[in-house]
Amino acid sequence: MLDSYLPILTLIIIALGFSVAVIVLSRLVGENKPSAVKLAPYECGMPPVGSAHEQFSIKFYIIAMLFIVFDIEVVFMYPWAVMFKRLGLFGFMEMGVFILILLVGYAYVWKKGALEWE
Amino acid sequence: MITVYHYMTVAAILFAMGTYGVLTRRNAIVIFMCIELMLNSVNLTFIALSSHLQNMDGQVFVLFVMAVAAAEAGVGLALMIAFYRNRDSIDVDDINLMKL
Amino acid sequence: MENLVQIALQNVNMAAILPSLVLTCFGMGLLLINVFLPRGTTRHAVWISVIGLVVTGFFVYTGWGNPQYGFNDAVANDNYTAFFSVIFLFAAGLTILMSDDYLTREGYPVSEYYPLILFATAGAMWMASGTDMLTIFLGLEVMSIALYVLAGFFRGQLRSNEAGLKYFLLGAFSTGFLLYGIALIYGVTGSTKLTEIGIYLNAHGSLLENPMTLAGLVLLSTGFLFKIAAAPFHMWTPDVYEGAPTPVTAFMSAGPKAAAFAAFLRIMEYCFFSLKPEWTAMLWVIAVLTMVIGNVIAIQQTNLKRMLAYSSIAHAGYALVGLVAANEIGYSGILFYMLAYTFMNIGAFAVLVLAGKKGEDNLTLEGFSGFGLKRPFLGVAMTVFLFSLMGLPPTAGFAGKFYIFAGAVKAGYIWLAVIGVLNSAVSLYYYLRIMVYMYFRDAEEDYAWVSLPAAAVISIVIALIGVFYLGIIPGDVMEMAKMAIF
Lengths: 118, 100, 486
Prior knowledge:
The complex is a heterotrimer.
Chain A: H1 6-29, H2 36-39, H3 58-72, H4 77-82, H5 84-112
Chain B: H1 4-24, H2 28-53, H3 57-87
Helix pairs in contact in B: 1-2, 2-3
Chain C: H1 2-10, H2 18-36, H3 43-63, E1 68-70, E2 75-77, H4 79-105, H5 113-129, H6 133-151, H7 158-189, H8 194-203, H9 211-228, H10 236-243, H11 246-270, H12 276-299, H13 304-325, H14 328-355, H15 371-374, H16 376-390, H17 396-410, H18 414-440, H19 454-472, H20 474-484
Antiparallel strand pairs in C: 1-2
């Protein structure tokens, strides 16, 4: 029964071996000339701004909380989408009601100003 | 052969770990993460049983548990932020204003 | 597959969820209206939510005697649901009426308060109407999440923060147990529908010995006993009740407690009737523990909110006696008792709401010295509510306790009834102590800050009428409670 895990084992060995080989090879073959710019943290190619160890603005928390709540509602749409044609008009309207309820929440959040970044 | 019992055992161990964490940890956010671990171990149980019983009810239940857990997370984090602003701490030992 | 979809669509029956649907629409509409009005205007919210509750009450009334089932038997709008819905609507209505001036006094005239109460009420109604574990769980969570916010509603006040956070952490913890219990029962029976679970467990007698069934039953009960605030899962109650805004405490002690009883009772009767000897034995111990712990610790309290919190634990214990009795009088006694408790407890909290200064540091026994003589109306009202909480005739509390203990005696639990009556005697001590302070101590304060806003007075008067009506003519409501149970 364990036979079925053989491909996974092979994959793990190859992946490990490849990454180790690349690191070791680049150490052995490549030139190594560190400079201040090269050792700086990588920040999307831009020159880094400030330290990474500072407190985040509370605005991020609010957006994060809103994200959690609105994001997860999509899980209800997957099963609905799979059965969309068979559920017919009624299913469509039910999902419309669901989205409408979400919109009430969204309108509330928007009007309250939680989405404004200033 | 991995049977439903293995899944149930893993879920039970995860649930026990979550419970242990809730009872021993002091940081409210870590406690909340342990609670999420408990909920997810329940989800694992539901899915394993659902597949074992060839019955979709369990999987539907999991979707709802996930959505509810997200709503709970939103409210819980908001409460923690409110507490942190007033108390400058998120340690449950500091929830001590009201005692017998 | 095609068949299943057809069956699912045919089973949709909006009449089965009509009352809670109406209430939710009012809640959402109110939420939207609120954001378009300037901050600090709350008066309109009170009236809109009261209208919402009355309209919902009308739909509940039309549902009486006309049971509707829908959504593949996940929801039942039967008499049982209707009776409990009335309890929730009264709890919400009385709470909303006493809240407006309180919120202004404490400096939080925030109109989101009212939609949250409506949502919690709708969640409670789903719990009572759920005949599938899924609907019960969803109702429980809708109710609880709204309550977590309400408990921490005074977000600048550390006490309220603590109450909200504590309630949230422990509530979510107990939800985990509840869900694990549901999962195990699902694994044993292959269904989440209450009736199917019951039939399956009854047909397969060997499952009753199965550790998975018993573990599921125990975990499930743990989740509900936590919400009911039964010992030994009561630890959160005093702190949360003390820290939460007083009207929210009033609501929490009546509505959600009744909702947890509603769902618990339905699950026990539908699913686990074949395990009755096991769970009555378990609940016997818990009922006794709850009554004793609630009453004994209440004696030592000097903070009135905290004292009423322990008293509410004790009252959960009395109601659990009805569940242990597990017969017609016991079950209908629980329904009756929850209605009676809603009136008397919310009434008592309404008096506290009016008697408190900003910050509520004076809600102690000492702070109540001479209150009854200086404020005669509130003093008399408080006296009536306290008599009812003690269980003295001719008040609702007496009739409720009478039915519940009668059920216990009829089921052969003489000792349980004796312990219950003894506990009521113990409770006389701390309730009477409030009255001694109110009438026989000299007033140090002039209670000049106590005003009588019309809405709060209406709330107290409704509670008084309820207490006397249920106390003097309990027969009619008891008949309805008997029609409501299964």
